[in-house]
Amino acid sequence: MSLITYLTTIRFAPGALAELGDDLQELNIRKPLIIADVGLERAGLIDRLRNVLPNGSDVPTFTGTPTNPTEGAVLAALDLYRSRGCDGLIAIGGGSPIDLAKGVALLSTHSGPLEGYAAILGGIPKITAAVAPLIALPTTAGTGSEVGRAALITLEDGRKLGFISPHLIPQRAICDPELTLGLPPALTAATGMDAITHCVETFLSPRFNPPAEAIALDGLERAVKNIERAVTHGDDAAARHEMMMAALEGGLTFQKGLGAVHALSHPLGGLKQVSLHHGTLNAVLLPYVIEFNEKNCGPKYDVLRQRVGIGPGANLADFFRNLNARLDMPESLAAMGVPRVTLPSIAESATKDHSSATNPRPASASDYLAILEAAYEGGSLHAST
């Protein structure tokens, strides 16, 4: 039996894609819109999806999802949804198509503008159960968006905002590890580090939720044991299975809240000067936030050390730095092409991000700027302060 019910209903098994028709029937979706991107089209994954759909060749598809989903793309997909008389969505891909589909599901039943539903602008209670039904099929093992209550969307004015509601959790998630077997090594590494960051940050969040913490720790352990194998041996079905479960578990813990890594990576991902991958940003920032939070986390760091397999008192930040190096992640924000002149504004934006409130150590704009400066140069936060 491949069904799991925790926040939503999940099919988790190799070959689970074949069961999509059952979910469409159960959700009473007769005219779905597929949300994807051009990379998935080139990889043949949309054709695989169409092959299991009733009248698959006639199902409309939106492939204009950008690397970081935008308000403009949401509105373009919404126009297609309405013009074709659709009554539900199928999102296939990484976090970008799934988040974009959440935006379409929201605006298809709620009046605009989109920014009115942003979490930091008081939009959470405005999102109702009337959202269009959404089925999510992840093809990466990282974002956890297939079971997450949030969508990150960059508005026309450049702000990257979070839209958060339990009603935005997809009604079905189909987690088929076979869909990740062709994922390139660099993307496997970046999305895998995204999953690891989710597990670490949700575990460290000060909110009280022991079940979520247990899930986060299990996901972290699976990920650190399998990420390098998945990167170097992309056809290893067992490693792909474990990484998809780790990503799913990271997403299942989102309701506990994230932290400073995401508070920083969200506005960085909204920069117009350069396109930055969310998972790669999280990988680069994680060691510095680990250093920043250490004095506030007490015994939780000992638990993390035990789960990742290092000794008591070992340097946890260096563990993640070394893991990044083995995965060929960039060494710094400078190496990613982040313009240094943007750092002060990113630090200020981080204080307003919804993830900042659940960082275990309160962070001011100057704290965030110190983290950014250290991550820009590489090395250690403590060495630079």
Automatic annotation (TrEMBL):
Q: Which domain of life is it from?
A: Bacteria
Any keyword NAD?
Answer: yes
Note the InterPro entries from the entry. Answer: ADH_Fe/GldA, ADH_Fe_C, ADH_Fe_CS, Alcohol_dehydrogenase_Fe
Q: Give UniProt keywords alphabetically.
A: NAD, Oxidoreductase
**Annotated ranges, domain Fe-containing alcohol dehydrogenase-like C-terminal:** 188-376
Cofactor dependence is on: Fe cation
* A family per Pfam: Fe-ADH
- Spell out the SUPFAM superfamilies in the cross-references: Dehydroquinate synthase-like (SSF56796)
Q: Boundaries of each Alcohol dehydrogenase iron-type/glycerol dehydrogenase GldA domain copy?
A: 8-177
Q: Does the keyword Acetylation apply?
A: no
Q: Belongs to which family?
A: Belongs to the iron-containing alcohol dehydrogenase family.
The protein here is known as Iron-containing alcohol dehydrogenase
Organism lineage: Bacteria, Pseudomonadati, Pseudomonadota, Alphaproteobacteria, Hyphomicrobiales
